[in-house]
Each structure stands twice: as structure tokens, then as C-alpha cells.
Amino acid sequence: MLKGMFAVLLAMGPPAVAAEELPSAYEKNKALLGRLQDGTTIFTIEQNGSLTHIQSGLVCTGTLKDYSLEAIYIFNEADPADDVGCDYARRSDEGNIVSKLTVFFVKGGQDTNLDTAFSHYRNEVLRASPGATPTSSQLHIKDETGVDNPAYKSSGFTIALNGEPYHSELIVEFVKPWIVEVRSTYKNDSIHVDMSKGKEAALADALRQKSDITNPYIAFLDSKALGK
Fold first, then answer.
1. Cβ atoms of residues 176 and 56 within 8 Å
2. Per-residue pLDDT tens for 116-160?
């Protein structure tokens, strides 16, 4: 995410007019938090724009490459801090949302564990997208022995949106008593390059698609859940 944009003064000709500085992640995310009722009693904002969930110490990352934080949610009005979400999106040049990613922190019940939490959210994806097909996860976080870290579970899904194939990624960890869920949805399950756009445009598009694949895991790692 850009933290500022400045015009370059040219050596020849009249001086360029400085472009309007873009708001930093801190300024933008602070404004979002300020619009949330009781938001500052649930999250604190850090200088890098990240949001620390006060009750759990878990973190919504402040920046993700090619994505921006779009909304902060409270899902349980009775206990506002017990079920919250941070919603990120990648937008097209026209401003349309093309990819979504949401980080949830939910206080689990007395009988909650990683298996029950993952099963619940996996079934939730399948209910929300009839016909969804489970697939392998896009990325894997290994432990020191080289196998998937047992502290989390993940799965991919092929789903249909507007008649087109999309990939949905689900990552879940249980840090008693908190459930961390990361869910993302984006076009395709691999990087598609359209060279008809020209080499530079195709490369830029490929890098944005790479962000779709990597950002769910970056958001998960930035949440500080793993290893708690």
C-alpha cells in the first residue's frame, strides 16, 4: 500500500505541482476505526496501521500488498469484542472489488478446539456456496520438521460466482479461547497471464494475482496467532 505520493520536480520547464499526498495506512485505518461504535475499546491502532484486538492480543494487519482495509466489523452486539472481523479487498483500476479477504477473531465456547472450529467454518463455506468442491490449500506453513504446522488447519475450495470459477481459501487456528479464521476469495486457483495486454501489463496483473494467493497467509501470520 502506498504511504505517500509526491510529484517529481523536472529539471527543465516549469516546476511540477505536488500531487495530493495519499493517506497513510495509519490515517486511513484510524478513520475506519473511528467510525465503528466503541471501536477504540475493542482495538488499538499501531503506527504501521495494524489493529490490535485488546482482549486477545491478536492483530489485523495494517497493510497487504495490492489490498486495502475496507471495513471493521462487530458481529455480536451483546459482547462486541467477542466476534470481530477485518475486511480487505483488492480493487480493479475501475474501482471494482475483484478479490476479498477477511480476518475474524471469535471467542470460542468451552468445548471448542481446533478440529471443531475448522469443521464448523469448513461447513459454513460449503453451505454458503452450494456445489463448492474442496481442494488442497494454496500454501503450507511448515514446522521445524518440514511437515505442516499442526497448530492450524486450512483448505481450498473451488466455487462458482456469477457462473465463473473462483478459489476460496480457509485458514483456522484455535488459540484458547480465541478462534482465528482467515477466509479469502479470488478468481482462479492459479496465476493466469494474458499477454495480449502487453508484457508490462501482463506482469503487473500476474503480481496482483500472486498477492491473492499469498495475502491470506501473510494476514494469518501477521495476526500473531501462530505460536501463541
1. no
2. 999 999 999 999 998 999 999 999 999 888 888 999 999 999 999
